[in-house]
């Protein structure tokens, strides 16, 4: 079995859980399912590990009101992240998600 869960750190409470057969586990789909559940109007911070990285997950999180998120990503997974300096920093990354496979010229 493979388990993905949402846990409220402040209230020490499990909010949601998705259980799948190990051979059919898809962490990103499980996260989208949990994030799509109706939520309060309170601000939410979601912290995800490496299995949840990817442009589809980032775009999904960007569309949810009152949601801030932190996703641990391998530095070689996305060019925008690989280009960052190897030091501690705090910055917002802004980039467009497109369906085209060819790169657009840098502005």
Total number of domains? 1
Average predicted local confidence, pLDDT = 77
Element string (H = helix, E = strand): EEHEHEH
State the helix count.
3
Runs in which pLDDT lies below 50 for 5 or more consecutive residues are: none
> How much helix, percentage-wise, in residues?
10-25%
Query: How would you classify the helix and strand content by structural class?
Result: alpha+beta
- Tell me the radius of gyration: 16 Å
Query: What is the topology, as strand order, of the major beta sheet?
Result: 1-2
In total, how many beta strands? 4
Strand content is 15-25%
- Overall geometry comes to globular
Biggest sheet overview: 2 strands, antiparallel
Q: Measure the end-to-end span.
A: 46 Å
Write up this protein.
The chain is globular. It is of the alpha+beta class. It has helices at 27-35, 55-62, 79-82; strands at 2-8, 13-20, 44-48, 67-71. The longest helix is centred in the first third of the chain and has 9 residues, at 27-35. The model has no long low-confidence stretch (mean pLDDT 77). The chain is 20% helix and 23% strand. It has 3 helices and 4 strands, in the order ββαβαβα.
